[in-house]
Design a protein that fits this description.
This protein is α/β, with parallel strands linked by helices. It is built from 15 helices and 12 strands. The protein has a 6-stranded parallel beta sheet, sandwiched between helices. The protein has a 4-stranded parallel beta sheet with strand order 3-4-5-6, with helices on one face. Helix 10 links the parallel strand 10 and strand 11. Helix 7 crosses helix 12 and helix 10 crosses helix 13.
Length: about 350
């Protein structure tokens, strides 16, 4: 998207990417990588030096995950883009990698955090040059389709479908309290169905709970290798999307659900949304098993309410995650850093975009 605005931008990625980072799993019609993607050989023993060498070719670097560390040796101005576990986990570790990442953040011209749940880490790490910018995603790709259950006259007669695409890592997602709420929900409302993905270190533990309660017949399990673009079908088949209950702001799953006009149940820090967005999204906020169960009952009992929340969710998302406006913020930032604009001025000016 940046290139469409005349920015000569290049993407550096692993030559042998994991499934969840490979652009081909996000773009259905992408058979070959475009010429503006460069690669570093993650199977080579010299991969660290290869990254630094490639970084030195450019005027400005925007790096994420652990790559801000390499920017320290590039002799180029760097913008660090936090992605999640890098800033909330890795940067706090008491080892050399953690130390180098903390150093890289503090030496960066700017640290961008696209998730409100990262704000606490920004404060703990005492990062002074940090700015929140909502994430960019193709919300035209994720949208309500003709097969959306809310558009069907048979919706009230069909099963109430819950989509839980979140990876099962109980310590960081709290899938366990959702699974327990679902077990209780099924016993009161037997005409329900759960769709979840076979991924995460605790998936088998989640499955065992369902097996023990003899309700595995109420569950569809999707292989973990399902391409990102195929998830749209499952969003549209569902009545509600359930995400996670530890991180208190939306990630891509929540935003994709909202884009598809689906009511979303997850934990939300309403104070942070008020601070950074000035408006709380129409998400069904829940933090424990009882609250999750109550929200499921609310939506099951009132299909018109569920549909209305879904519509308002997409409206909120497009209002505050407007791609054109966000791109203009980035273009301003790149030019401001190239012109050595002070952080105080930069922070004030960015609010105009």
């Amino acid at each position: 998207m940046i290139r469409k605005y005349g920015i000569d931008a290049y993407l550096l990625m692993e030559k042998y990417p994991r499934e969840n980072t490979d652009p081909k799993n996000f773009e259905k019609n992408l058979s070959n990588y475009p010429e503006w993607i460069e690669f570093w050989d993650n199977h080579s023993h010299n991969w660290k030096f290869e990254i630094i060498k490639k970084m030195r070719k450019y005027d400005l670097i925007q790096s994420s995950t652990e790559l801000p560390i390499f920017s320290l040796f590039s002799r180029k101005p760097n913008i660090s883009f936090a992605t999640g576990s890098d800033i909330i986990e890795l940067a706090h570790q008491n080892n050399i990698k953690g130390f180098l990442l903390r150093t890289a953040y503090k030496k960066s011209k700017l640290v961008i955090f696209p998730g409100l749940y990262m704000y606490d880490s920004i404060k703990k790490l005492k990062i002074k040059r940090a700015i929140f910018i909502p994430p960019i995603w193709d919300y035209n790709k994720f949208h309500s389709e003709e097969n959306n259950k809310f558009n069907s006259e048979e919706n009230n007669k069909s099963e109430f479908t819950i989509f839980h695409p979140t990876g099962h890592t109980w310590h960081s997602k709290r899938n366990d309290i959702f699974i327990k709420a679902f077990v209780k929900f099924v016993k009161i409302y037997p005409n329900v169905h759960l769709i979840m993905i076979n991924r995460g270190s605790d998936f088998q533990k989640s499955k065992m709970i369902l097996e023990k309660e003899n309700i595995l017949d109420k569950v569809t399990i999707i292989p973990k290798a399902v391409p990102q673009y195929n998830l749209i079908e499952y969003y549209n088949k569902s009545d509600v999307v359930v995400d996670q209950f530890l991180v208190d702001s939306t990630g891509l799953i929540g935003q994709e659900a909202m884009a598809c006009e689906k009511p979303l149940i997850q934990l939300v820090n309403e104070e942070l949304y008020q601070k950074f967005y000035s408006e709380i999204p129409p998400i069904l906020n829940a933090s424990n098993e009882k609250q999750i169960y109550d929200k499921l009952v609310l939506l099951k009992e009132d299909a018109s309410l569920a549909k209305n929340i879904g519509i308002k969710s997409r409206e909120w998302l497009l209002k505050y995650h407007d791609t054109e406006k966000i791109i203009k913020k980035y273009i301003y930032l790149y030019q401001a850093i190239a012109d050595n604009v002070s952080f105080k001025t930069l922070k004030n000016e960015i609010q105009k975009y």
